[in-house]
Amino acid sequence: MGVVIGGIRFSDEFLGTFVPIVLYWVYSGIYVFLGSFDDYRLHSKKDEEEKNLVLKKDVVIGVLFQQVVQASVATVLFAVTGGNGASTQNHDASVLVLARQFIVAMVALDTWQYFVHRYMHYNKFLYKHIHSHHHRIVVPYAFGALYNHPLEGVLLDTFGGALAFLISGMSSRASIFFFSFATLKTVDDHCGLCVPGNLFQIFFGNNAAYHDIHHQFYGSKYNFSQPFFVTWDRILGTYMPYNIVTRTEGGLEAQPAKECKED
Fold this sequence. Notes:
Shape: globular
Strand content: 5-15%
Helix content: 55-70%
Number of strands: 4
Strand order of the largest sheet: 1-2
Order of helices and strands: EEHHHHHHHHHHHEEH
Structural class: mainly alpha
């Protein structure tokens, strides 16, 4: 099975591997443009330049390296599983079956990422040598979403995605849409902007403002959930509520609720 584009047939496995990568950079590019509108920003441009501890060129290199690793693992995974049952019946699954697979994959990915992410914060060695790489970006921006230590990229994102794919039982064709959706959601969560009408930010409590709290010093032990729901944070007491307020100099800011500041 596959899709013909411009007279060239691309397999579902190929598209499931590379479409999310292309969308990552296209969607990030949109946010780079929107970042010029100060009224939408959760931090000022000055804060982005002064507080972040890594150069953007190094972020680009780090993300590209992680995407090469992810593409390699995906290629092996599809080869081993045969697209997770790439039969015509699986490709033509009903809407209800696809919806169930998406929900199972979302819950599996959220569960994996919550507990691995949280452990990386509580284990001082792992935080210092691995997860702190991601937190060099104190003021998040879109194309920094996948900037991680290579080991974290494999453990958190690549293994998590593979687990979601296998547990859900989705086909390679369905994975094109799931991983594209997950990629867009992850970029959006790191965009650093609250844009009116943004469906991700309307329908998901786990959004750019929610994750921005986690990137600040006071929120580093809260809001671990990613990329879809806030369920595990609420269940396990790591949920930090917040309010979005207008900064005096213009733009927006996600501030912890009063009771959290007092804690």
